[in-house]
Specification:
With 93 residues, the protein is an all-alpha fold. The chain is 81% helix and 0% strand. It is built from 3 helices and no strands. It is flat and about 60 Å long. The relative contact order is 0.05. The mean pLDDT is 86.
């Protein structure tokens, strides 16, 4: 006879496995996106500084589209806060 909490434990394990798989998929998609951006830099013969400017402009545009009612300074602050939170969380590795 199985213990009462067997189903709960099995569900919890499956949920954890799904979460690990989802995180791995997300990391792969992010890495593919970065590689694609680097390929675009090469195709357009952009130097590192120009690539960083383009990457920053892309990020700003994404935040601007997400928060259209905010001004430039507010969006810059959101970007800064997001970057700090991301760095502090260790998700960059």
């Amino acid at each position: 006879m199985l213990p009462e909490n067997f189903l709960f434990s099995k569900t919890k394990i499956m949920s954890a496995q799904t979460s690990i798989l989802d995180q791995a998929k997300r990391k792969i998609l992010i890495e593919q996106t970065v590689r694609g951006f680097l390929e675009l830099m090469d195709e357009n013969e952009l130097e590192l500084e120009d690539g960083l400017v383009a990457w920053n402009m892309l990020g700003f545009t994404m935040f601007q589209d997400t928060y259209p009612d905010e001004n430039h300074a507010e969006i810059q602050q959101r970007m800064s806060d997001f970057s700090k939170k991301l760095f502090d969380s260790g998700q960059l590795s």
